[in-house]
Amino acid sequence: MSSPSPQSDPNRWKALTFIAVAQLMVVLDATIVNIALPSAQRDLDISVANRQWVITAYALAFGGLLLFGGRIADLWGRKKTFITGLIGFAGASALGGAATTPAMMFGARGLQGVFAALLAPAALSLLAVTFTESKERAKAFGIYGAIAGGGGAVGLILGGVLTEYLDWRWTFFVNIPFAVVAVLGALATVHEPSQSRNRSPLDLPGVVLSIVGLVSLVYGFTRAESEGWTEGGTIAVFAAAAVLLASFVVVESRVRAPLLPLRVVLDRNRGGVYLSIGMATVGMFGLFLFLTYYLQVVQGYSPVKTGLAFLPMVVGMITGSTQIGARLMTRLPARLLIGPGLLVGSLGMLLLTQLETDSSYATLVLPAQLMLGLGLGTAFMPSMSLATSGVNPRDAGVASAMVNTSQQVGGAIGTALLNTIAASATTAYVADHVAEAGASPEGRKLVELRAMVEGYTSAIWWAVGILLLASAAATFLINHRPGDGPAAPAPGDEAVEDEPVLVPAH
Question: What pTM does this model have?
Answer without folding.
Answer: 0.79
